[in-house]
Design a protein that fits this description.
0% strand; 231 residues; mainly alpha; 75% helix; 8 helices
């Protein structure tokens, strides 16, 4: 059952630290959005990083294209389906719910933020801040890391190390691909990464809270039914 207690997707030992990180990440998303609102050119940091990454040739360009595909509809859907299937095979339906909810919330947040920030790249029609591709892969990595932390019974230090390492690797990989292909500025990538860090812990907490409430209600109904039969 999704609402079965004891199968939370947000390990209690990580809640406080992930909550703090989520709050800081949300502040950075807002700050970058305000700083680059309405801009259509790279900022100072972008101008420093972008020339070293953008315009790479094969085989690096092919690797960037393959990584970018993971954030496209077909590639992203495939990753989500595979991850959900693994969660169900491991009998972790609550984790399967978080895969869908966490990824959808991260991507949805970037979609809503883009017109608010109004930052563009390669023309006024291409809204760029924050990067949805980066948010997607980072969110998926965070969910998988949270699942692994709970399943392996990792403590706070090991669990936080795994979660942050997974988010960093996924964010850097997709972020590099987006900048290399000229699809985003480096600060767009940072914004997408922080968006995932901000929304996934909150979504995990909400999934746990909702599932536990359903479990409590089901337990109460079962107990009432049992008392009724004994009468």
């Amino acid at each position: 059952m999704v609402g079965q207690r004891g199968t939370g997707v947000l390990p209690p030992s990580l809640r406080a630290w992930l909550g703090l990180i989520a709050a800081l990440a949300a502040l950075l998303v807002v700050a970058l959005g305000v700083l680059y609102a309405g801009a259509g050119e790279p900022g100072t940091v972008d101008a420093w990083i972008q020339p070293t990454v953008e315009g790479m040739r094969s085989p690096w360009r092919n690797i960037a294209l393959a990584t970018d595909f993971l954030g496209e509809p077909v590639g992203a859907a495939t990753l989500v389906v595979v991850t959900v299937t693994v969660c169900l095979l491991l009998r972790r339906p609550r984790a399967a719910v978080l895969v869908v909810a966490g990824v959808a919330t991260a991507v949805g947040a970037t979609t809503l933020l883009k017109p608010l920030a109004g930052r563009t790249i390669h023309g006024d029609a291409n809204l760029s801040y924050p990067s949805g591709h980066t948010a997607f892969l980072t969110a998926l990595a965070l969910v998988v890391a949270l699942l692994a932390t709970g399943r392996l019974g990792l403590g706070r230090t090991a669990g936080m190390s795994l979660v942050l390492a997974a988010a960093l690797v996924a964010g850097c990989a997709m972020g590099w691909a987006q900048v290399a292909l000229g699809a985003h500025y480096p600060t767009d990538v940072l914004g997408g990464w922080c968006t995932a860090l901000a929304v996934v812990p909150a979504t995990a907490w909400l999934v746990d809270r909702t599932a536990d409430r359903w479990a409590d209600r089901w337990a109460d109904r079962t107990a009432d039914a049992g008392r009724g039969e004994r009468r």
